[in-house]
Amino acid sequence: MKVSKKINFRRIEKKWQSRWEKTKAFQPKIDSRKKKYYTLEMYPYPSASGLHMGHAFNYIIADIQARFKRMQGFNVLYPIGYDSFGLPAENAAIKEKSHPKIFTDKAIKNFIRQQKMLGLSYNWSCVLKSHDPKYYKWNQYFFLQFYKNGLAYRKKANVNWCPTCNTVLANEQVHNGKCWRHINTEVEIKQLEQWFINTTKYADELITKVEDLNWPERIKLMQKNWIGRSEGAEINFKINNKEWKIFTTRPDTLFGVTFLVISAQHPGLMDLVTKDRKKELENFIKRIKSTKQENLDKLDKEGVFTGTYAIHPTTNQKIPVWAGNFVLADYGSGMIMAVPAHDQRDFEFAKKYNLPIKLVIQPKEGKIDEENIQEAYEGTGKLVNSEAFNDLLSEEAKEHIIKALEFKTLGRKTLQYKLRDWLVSRQRYWGTPIPIIYCEKCGIVPVPEKDLPVKLPDKVKFGEGNPLETNKKFINTTCPQCNKKARRETDTMDTFFDSSWYYLRYIDNKNEKEPFNKKKIEYWMPVNFYTGGAEHACMHLIYARFFTKALRDLGFLKIDEPFTRLFNQGMLHKDGFVMSKSRGNVVVPEEVSGKYGIDTARLFLMSIASPDKDTEWNSTGIEGSLRFIMRIVKYFNTVKKERSTQKVQHKINKTIQKVTEEIENIKYNLAIIRLRGLLETLEDETEIDKKDLESFIKLLSPICPHISEELWHNLGHKPMVSLESWPKADESKISNELEKQEEILEKTIEDIKNILNLVRQKQNKEAQKIYIYTIPNELKLYNTNYISKKIGKEVRIFAANDKNKYDPENKAQKTKPNKPGIYIE
Ligand code: ANZ
Ligand code: ZN
Ligand code: ZN
Questions:
Q1: Phi then psi for 597, rounded to 5 degrees?
Q2: Which of 225, 248, 255, 360 to mutate to test the pocket of ligand 1 (most atoms within 8 A of CB)?
Q3: Which end of the chain is more exposed for a tag (fewer CB within 10 A), N or C?
Q4: Cβ(796)–Cβ(822) below 8 Å
Q5: Which residues sit with Cβ closer than 5 angstroms to ligand 2, an ion?
């Protein structure tokens, strides 16, 4: 490498990237003597526009961890693949009159080229693609296993339909009533027969076990809220001699029930309606919009009387049953016991339709006037108007009332979850065909495992709707049971199915006999370090956890959780906005590599902020990183390889200790500050032990792998530094004394900078000279040149008792141990 002038980054990058690839440097082998480490990024969608530095940010975080762990002696699996099925590819292909497969393969090729350019240390020998029949065959296989074990089923239900996607969506994919892909499209509710996966069977485990994961707290909370466990009771109300089990979290308010409300979308509603009220109800149902969880409180409450009465389980009174728009059809029993005195929604409804309001809880302090209730009292308190339960406090009353009901089999304690079963069928082409056949005689017949994969036909006509529906060759088949003519299912799977278990397939993706080998899974799972965006908290991360648990119970693996540690990266911004293609503020790796070198970009991206925080891309910052790399190269070219001074030894070992800690904790920015500090110390010295020089390269190499290989090579090493072992700090070389002195020195520099800033702001003046007064025996700690260089001003240092010092304002008087006096002019 030529000194300082210009580093030929392109050449160095190409050279080492091809050497890593040729030697298969990052391909792990199962080795039971070695501890494993599995690093993974969330399965990326290969978009046609390729990747920009915002994506790169995420990959670099994981790559640094992978490189670090590898050097620490772990057997590292760091794979990559492409979540290549899905709607965007299909839509783009339709628009460009191409085929999703051609389109997708091209996009993947481009992705791979760009990822290699970033110097990511993937194991390129196990690349996955969802649209590869060798992969999706196993989607179908698992679907069948689920089906056989009651975890996949078909039912008619109210489902979310996105008119822009032209397909149904899972609950998780509806955000505030809008489609997750189309944030401006209101989702419509349709009654359709669809395929579901029984995720709710695992609701309890999903919510309880989330606690033990090493995940960001906010993600855990989002997931817990999404699964949403409520403790309560179901209470039987008799309507027309049929029992309705109604869920309530407040059994203590049972005596305050004055009416029931059934969801307007409830499939059993019309059976309850009396003849004379049918017309009115039908009009009502037509008029109102569907109800969603998010807007229950905001909604204008509306309803119609059904003409029917229920019997209250304890008072035996007749209470009217209404239909209402503020009750969800698919939560609890889809019917509520309304307690207007203690639930604001019910209160508003009762007021509007003039229904009775009965107070049954008095707050512990203050008293509500029963005759003149202004709003619902939703708190707890003492029971009134509740027969035998009067005077009990809410909490005990809940227990007592449930017991009394249980005794008469009129109710029981229960748990309710907000989580709904996962709707997995999609009315789109570019996905895994659901391996089901419909026979007029035999009904739903699973495709026999030996006939898998059910391949997606290549030749299809795109136009209106799902092209599989009009593809005779695909649809028409024979029934595996009776051999008569039958039809294939034309729905494909939600692509979240693909991303629910891809991390297992990486481990054994050439296996044609089974989805993966159990022994191999035992060695590699769980994923130790998983990076990705927070937007997946309640989608992918729930499905993947469900999958792992379901496969465990079906005997495929033994672990409970797929991802032990989750890391959410921050977003990369440019010009104040998140870097994105649609905004047109992207910077691409090609541009960066040519101008600054990829190592410079890696260093820069990781140095601005902690990787979990947002970062702003700017060209001044990256110039700073470039200068740092130039200085390193220059230093290596000029330093004499002799003995390290005690100070250098201290500094090197302390840096090893700290950088190890910071990289482990994903505080790469702090690791870089340490490396900068180290270089500063080294630059002050003219010689260094070769071994210390080597340690410096090793510490740098996870962040700047290409330059590090080159420096390593220049020191005369043949093997690559990427495969060297991580340096160990020699604690005997670390001096607390020196460390403390350094801290004091840095603190003094910080103080001086603050004073200079103050003078700049308050007096609008730029000081030129700095005078420092130390207690006499600390004088030797302050290096005039070093401080002067860091501050960029002339510096003079005196012992406070020096008779000849320059000190016009008597600042030397303020000198204390570890805190020098400062004067500037
Ligand atoms: C009587 C009652 C009295 C209620 C009271 C609340 C306060 P979470 O916490 O969300 O689980 N509920 C039950 N099923 C419903 C449905 N399908 N759609 C809308 N609301 C429904 O809420 C449970 C409470 O929400 C239940 O407790 C029920 O109202 C209502 F002073 O029952 B409660
Ligand atoms: Zn949509
Ligand atoms: Zn048949």
A1: 90, 140
A2: 248
A3: C
A4: no
A5: 162, 164-165, 179, 181-182
User: Which of 319, 321, 192, 331 shows the shortest CA–CA distance to 269?
Assistant: 321
663: its two tokens: 């990289």
What is the H or E stretch that residue 487 is in?
Answer: strand 485-488
For all residues of the chain together, what is the average pLDDT? 93
CA of 447 to the centre of ligand 3 (A): 12
The upper half-sphere exposure of residue 182, i.e. CA atoms within 13 Å in the direction of its Cβ, equals 16
Q: Please list, in sequence order, all residues whose beta carbon lies within 8 angstroms of the beta carbon of residue 150, skipping any fewer than 6 positions away.
A: 198
Which of 658, 635, 823 has its CA nearest to residue 743? 658
Q: What is the pLDDT of residues 336-372, one digit of tens each?
A: 999 999 999 999 999 999 999 999 999 998 899 999 9
Phi/psi-derived region of residue 354, left when phi > 0, alpha when psi is between -120 and 50, beta in every other case: left
Instruction: Give the ligand with the smallest distance to the CA of 483.
Output: 3
Q: What are phi and psi of 24, to 5 degrees?
A: 50, 50
**Ligand 2 centroid to 179 CA: how many Å?**
5
Could you identify the residue written with the tokens 């509520």?
A: 336
- Are 708 and 675 in contact by the 8 Å Cβ rule? The answer is no
Q: How far is the CA of 555 from the centre of ligand 2 (A)?
A: 36
What the block records as the tokens of 596 is 């600054």
792: which DSSP letter?
T
Neighbours of 132 (CB within 10 A): 16
Cα–ligand 3 centroid distance for 138 (angstroms): 24
d(CA 344, CA 340): 7
144-148, 465-469, 720-724: range with lowest mean pLDDT: 465-469
Instruction: Kindly give the distance from the C-alpha atom of residue 330 to the centroid of ligand 2, in angstroms, as a whole number.
Output: 22
229 Cα–ligand 2 center, Å: 28
**Residue-level pLDDT at 699:** 98
Contact between 62 and 41 (Cβ < 8 Å): yes
- Closest Cα to residue 465, out of 97, 719, 176, 94? 94
Tell me the mean pLDDT in the region 544-548: 98
| 2 pLDDT higher than 60 | no
Protein residue whose Cα sits closest to atom 25 of ligand 1:
248
Ligand 1: which residue has its CA nearest to atom 12? 336
Q: State the ligand closest to the CA atom of 331.
A: 1
At a CB cut-off of 8 Å and minimum separation 6, what does 402 contact? 233, 251, 411, 412, 413
Beta strands in 268-362 (DSSP E): 303-311, 318-324, 335-338, 361-362
Ligand 2 center to residue 164 CA distance, Å? 5
Q: Which ligand is nearest to the CA of 445?
A: 3
C-alpha radius of gyration, the chain, whole number? 34
Using CA atoms, how far residue 66 sits from 171, 367, 608, 701, in Å, is 35, 64, 21, 12
Ligand 1 pocket: which residues have CB below 6 Å?
230, 247-250, 253, 327-328, 331-332, 334, 336-337, 339, 342-343, 416
- Looking from the CA of residue 249, the nearest atom of ligand 1 is 27
User: For residue 765, which amino acid is it?
Assistant: K
Helix (H, G, I), strand (E, B) or coil at 681: helix
C-beta of residue 497 within 8 angstroms of C-beta of residue 170: no
- State how beta strands 492-493 and 485-488 pair: unpaired
- Residue-wise pLDDT tens digits, 795-807: 999 999 999 999 9
Q: Give the whole-angstrom CA distance, residue 333 versus residue 335.
A: 5
Asked whether 323 and 343 are in contact (CB, 8 A), the reply is no
What is the separation, in whole angstroms, between the first and last Cα of the chain?
Answer: 44
**Placement of tokens 């994919």 in the chain:** 173
Report the residue among 250, 290, 322 best suited for mutation to probe ligand 1: largest number of ligand atoms under 8 A from its CB. 250
Å from CA of 232 to ligand 1 middle: 9
- Rounded to an integer, the average pLDDT of 663-690 is 93
